[in-house]
Amino acid sequence: MKILVTLKRVPDPEQKIKFKGEALDLSSANYVVNPFDEYAVETALRLTEKADAAARIGEVVVVSIGPKEAAQQLRSALAMGADRAILVAGDDASLDSEQVARIVAKLCEQEKPDLVLMGKQAVDGDSNQAGQLVAGYLGLPQACFASSLELSADGKTLTVGREVDGGVELKRVPLPAVVTVDLRIIQPKAVRNRVTSPEHAYQEGPRYASLKGIMAAKKKELREVTPGDLGAATAARVKIVKIVAPAARKAGVKVETVQELVKKLHEEAKVI
């Protein structure tokens, strides 16, 4: 099985970012792998290994669109166990979901993966659009917000569990397909590939890169291309005009009775 995984570098969510005029000041930002994309890498590795025998049974290709510095995040995925990486030149500030989807679709036409795995969204833009657009442009079935995955015995279909308001919804999609993953995909038994023993339980969360993995990552292929090399349109359709902080919340007021509270909620807050 060949899996293509998208990976975006994002400003560290734990780092406080300041404003500079009507934009964010990212001059001193520390960049990390988008958490949901890291979960997608972990999912791909679980699908393409016999974990109880420490054997690889497939190929994982990670793709990032961004400046040359994004190679650092790709190397992190290679150190986790991905087989090779592709860096498509791009500008973080001007990328939108449309550009990302067009580029990923062109890469899929070249690589012909059995499965495209993506994080459900990036934690900087929170657009939650790229995965759906990729599936649409490629004409592939899709399943979004996956919390569990199980490969069929013949390797031709994938059963995807999705958490919905009423419980868990199961969808079976034929491969090739596009799947975006959610937080709970990294639970110990959330991914089943019919090769690793069903009794095997992973450690919760994405795996840490071992020293051996870090050294091996230095020798793995990291190919650099441009959107033009892929024949992908690069014109952005979304332009960020300005970014402003939310208005400060006003101090609350105290009420003496329930009746007074109801009156204020009705007449002033207008929520009832």
Word description of this protein:
With 272 residues, the chain is α/β, with parallel strands linked by helices. It has helices at residues 35-47, 71-80, 97-111, 130-138, 211-217, 227-230, 258-267; strands at 2-6, 9-11, 18-20, 23-25, 31-33, 49-50, 55-56, 59-66, 84-89, 115-119, 142-151, 157-164, 167-174, 177-181, 191-192, 222-225. Strands 1, 8, 9, 10, 11, 12, 13, 14, 15 and 16 form a 10-stranded mixed β-sheet that branches. Strands 2-5 form a two-stranded antiparallel sheet. A two-stranded antiparallel ribbon has the order 3-4. A hairpin with a 2-residue loop joins strand 3 and strand 4 (23-25). It starts with a strand and ends in a 5-residue tail after the last helix.
Helix run count: 7
Largest sheet: 10 strands, mixed
Q: Estimate the mean pLDDT confidence.
A: 93
The helix content is 25-40%
Structural class assignment: alpha/beta
- Poorly predicted segments: none
- The termini sit apart by 55 Å
Q: Taking Cα atoms only, what radius of gyration do you get, to the nearest Å?
A: 22 Å
Fraction of residues in β-strands: 25-35%
Listing every helix as H and every strand as E from the N terminus to the C terminus, the arrangement reads EEEEEHEEEHEHEHEEEEEHEHH
- By DSSP, the count of extended strands is 16
Shape: globular
